[in-house]
Predict the 3D structure of the following.
Amino acid sequence: MTHPDDALDDATATPGAAVGAAEPDATTDEPEGVGTIDQSADDASRERALRAGLDDYELADEDLSLLDHEPEDGQDEAPEAPLPVLAVVGRPNVGKSTLVNRILGRREAVTEDKPGVTRDRVSYPAEWAGTRFTLVDTGGWEVDVAGIDARVAEQAEIAIDLADAVVFVVDAVVGPTDTDERVVRLLRRAGKPVVLCANKVDGAAGEADALSLWSLGLGEPHPVSALHGRGTGDLLDAAVNALPEISAHGELRPEGPRRVALVGRPNVGKSSLLNKVAGAQRVVVDEVAGTTRDPVDELVLLKGQPWWFVDTAGIRRRVHQTRGADFYASLRTQAAIEKAEVAVVLLDASVPMTEQDTRVISQVVDAGRALVIAYNKWDLMDEDRRRYLEREFDRELVQVQWAPRVNVSARTGWHTDRLVPALERSLASWDRRIPTGRLNAFLGELVAAHPHPLRGGKQSRILFATQASTRPPRFVLFATGFIEAGYRRFIERRLREEFGFEGSPIEISVRVREKRRR
């Protein structure tokens, strides 16, 4: 007997668009390849005829460049060797993330002048003096803490275990504390090479404060000002010398896996989902909303296929209304969306949708990324909520009916295996290219059956169409006049019905061109 959850999930998993309508019918009786060859020949002859007719119109150089452009296939790069891992550790508010940003040469890690901003262990590719390595930022380590602080400390300990060398950051102004001495004992048990960083030494007068750190028994303290960059070169020289030539803990970072960003408003279960698909407590999870601050990358195997999953900070409100760490976390989330290829937007299925949910989806669409919508916390829904869910989706998200939907429970792992087919469909649409001849044949039939409305006694006519790019699919229409927004939406809807494009936004632009003067 079918479980009611399965029935509703199947009903909501695929929108009404005809996915893959442009693919050849596998049941045809024609010999293999014959129909494809004939279709390609027809497409090519139709394209040449329409292209010749376009020569009667005034075309700019950029138009000719677009029409003559041939898409290039990307070349796969050879996989790299695992990079050595350098972890930056210390108690809260000693400047670890500021030092990480200084080493990277850009503001990558979220920083604020208060303790506890960084919570997860976050990896970044870095380089110094020709040596490439993986730099790991960690949350502040504390002893005898509970709740979220205890989980942050656990992630810092995991970072030490998985590092080839450690930079131990101490506040030189405050001097060694009891917590610092506990960290020293932790580092000695780990048996990793340690470079001692005496941070917040802003001038020569502060170097005397750094001398007191000899008492920690970790060797020479390197006086550094992470905020101003003073002394970071000598620190990095020592850190690079401590790294082994062959990493014992580094992971191969292949270029092939697709990048998946987990996005949504706070407390919808993004970190829980990453931990579930990764099969480990990779990121800190807490009932307090806004636990994640920095995007966290993790290589995940799903059905034997590798994926780069990126956990992101929850988008609370409009960026200009946020402050401090939340402001920078919002910027990092936007950057993570733009670096990703597909975004999984998590919605809380147990409660009504909010304006924040629709804003997150709009961010993904505006960034031109493939989209999958995942209804999380399915196990918390009651019967009344189930009845209104589909109606709510049709009402609130009418503009993204083309996005595949998956119902999951990050807490129990229910239906998380259905993410892979949805991701593959969206990415296939994101990469899809329509032959120019077939595209123009489709538009010719469409315009003949449904011509553009008359405006001012004139009717705009589409002369030629081409797909300028993929990722996302972008189409350019050459026309004799302005094409109204409503008619462009009509073309987009029919493009989806004919060629699929499930899970991918479509961009349509129009170039109005006049006939050459005789």
Remarks:
- The chain is about 35% helix and 20% strand.
- The longest strand covers residues 462-469.
- Residues 207 and 227 are 16 Å apart (CA to CA).
